Amino acid sequence: MTCTTRLPKPVTDVWDWQMDGLCRGQNSAIFFHPDNERGYARAAREEKAKEICAQCPVLAQCRSHALDSQEPYGVWGGMGEDERRQIIAAARRRVRAA
């Protein structure tokens, strides 16, 4: 009999959490910065995105996805790009130190 344990999981098992995200149907410009956005405008946009994330029922899954896949852009799981970079860099330093 063929071993099926190495086959990928059905896509719905992996991505279904996205259907329940509060960002679904929102303008993506809230979560992803336009070119050259800086300073107050960027901080205000990110804060608005994070307020939506804070109420989201799939916050944990979204955050886990963003860290696991090292999403480089946007607000995911209530974290901005710089916050994720810091967490990922710290994890790499721990691995190198071990």
TrEMBL record:
Binding residues annotated for [4Fe-4S] cluster, in chain numbering = C23, C53, C56, C62
- What does its PTM field state? The Fe-S cluster can be nitrosylated by nitric oxide (NO).
A single Pfam family it belongs to is Whib
Which cofactor(s) are needed, names only? [4Fe-4S] cluster
Main subcellular localization, coarse class?
cytoplasm
Q: Which BP terms does GO give this entry?
A: cell redox homeostasis; negative regulation of DNA-templated transcription
- Cofactor: record remark: Binds 1 [4Fe-4S] cluster per subunit. Following nitrosylation of the [4Fe-4S] cluster binds 1 [4Fe-8(NO)] cluster per subunit.
Domain called 4Fe-4S Wbl-type: residue spans:
22-86
Q: Which GO terms describe its molecular function?
A: 4 iron, 4 sulfur cluster binding; dinitrosyl-iron complex binding; DNA binding; metal ion binding; protein-disulfide reductase [NAD(P)H] activity
Q: Which domain of life is it from?
A: Bacteria
- UniProt keyword annotations, A-Z: 4Fe-4S, Cytoplasm, Disulfide bond, DNA-binding, Iron, Iron-sulfur, Metal-binding, Transcription, Transcription regulation
Write out the GO cellular component annotations. Answer: cytoplasm
Database matches in PANTHER family:
TRANSCRIPTIONAL REGULATOR WHID (PTHR38839:SF5), TRANSCRIPTIONAL REGULATOR WHID-RELATED (PTHR38839)
Summarizing the function annotation, the protein's role is: Acts as a transcriptional regulator. Probably redox-responsive. The apo- but not holo-form probably binds DNA.
Family annotation (HAMAP family): WhiB
Q: Which family does the entry's similarity section mention? A: Belongs to the WhiB family.
State the name under which the record lists this protein: Transcriptional regulator WhiB
Gene behind this protein: whiB
